[in-house]
Design brief:
By secondary structure, this protein is α+β, with helices and mostly antiparallel strands. About 35% of the residues lie in helices and about 40% in strands. The protein has 5 helices and 8 strands, in the order ααββαββαβαβββ. The strands form 2 sheets. The chain has a 5-stranded antiparallel beta sheet with strand order 3-4-2-5-7. A 3-stranded antiparallel beta sheet has the order 1-8-6.
Length: about 250
């Protein structure tokens, strides 16, 4: 067996190298016996599969979110604003006496109205608007809409539907469980097809809380209460609750 190499600065091959390379070479030769056991004992890299599972539940809505208001057009800003204020006050007084929640003003607007003829702009008047929003039980929404119009409302902008919080929380928990089962089922199928078996879950990422309410019911037109022989029908739908879980699983 050859004796171990013992380099020295007097070696011819070291004398031909720059000083920095000599120092680097000597450092590596000195440390290599110490690093060899570490590299030899490094554990094998863990194998992971990443899967995304999805859950979905539906909750019956019980309340309607309504936005309505007053819109007036007239020749002067003062007259328009006066009429808007009077009619809006009457609508608000009516609503305050009803079994509703979260009544609040959502918009006040007064703007000029122009007419364009022969590429010329001419002021013809003003348009004023005041809108409010509130929540009410779905089965009372139609009657309150009609009576709000009788009280002075001239437009109904939108009606959307809301599920109770307790129902949403329960649906979210169920959707999460479904998402976990979906992710594990996907991993089982893929690993089984490849001849592997699922071991421990290494990381978990939860994306819960996706809620898709029913599509709002827009009206955007003036209504006349006297023309309605029956209360306006308002039918709530179901609210969608989604959850996504991403798992990293060792195999």
């Amino acid at each position: 067996m050859l004796p171990p190499l013992k380099p020295s600065l007097s070696s011819p091959w070291l004398r031909r190298l720059p000083l920095s390379l000599c120092v680097l070479s000597l450092s590596w030769l000195a440390l290599s016996p110490l690093l060899a056991p570490v590299l030899a004992d490094e554990p094998p890299r863990q194998r992971l599969i990443t899967v995304s599972g999805r859950g979905e539940e539906f909750v019956q809505t019980t309340k309607a979110q309504i936005q309505l208001g007053v819109q007036v057009q007239g020749p002067t800003a003062q007259e328009v604003q006066r009429q808007v204020a009077e009619r809006s006050a009457a609508v608000v007084r009516f609503l305050q006496g009803q079994p509703i929640e979260r009544l609040e003003t959502t918009g006040i607007n007064l703007s000029p109205t122009y007419e364009y003829t022969d590429n010329r702009q001419r002021l013809v008047g003003y348009t004023g608007q005041n809108t409010v929003s509130f929540r009410v039980a779905t089965d009372k929404a139609g009657s309150i809409l009609d009576r709000a119009v009788a009280a002075g409302a001239t437009r109904i902008d939108s009606v959307s539907f809301i599920a109770p919080e307790a129902g949403v929380r329960e649906a979210r928990a169920t959707a999460l469980r479904e998402a976990v089962e979906d992710a594990r089922a996907q991993a089982t199928v893929v690993l089984g097809a490849l001849g592997y078996s699922m071991q421990a879950v290494q990381t978990i990422q939860v994306e819960a809380g996706g809620i898709s309410p029913p599509v709002p019911f827009p009206v955007n037109r003036a209504l006349r209460a006297e023309a309605a022989s029956e209360p306006t029908p308002v039918i709530g739908g179901q609210q969608q609750v989604q959850a996504t879980v991403v798992l990293q699983i060792a195999y």
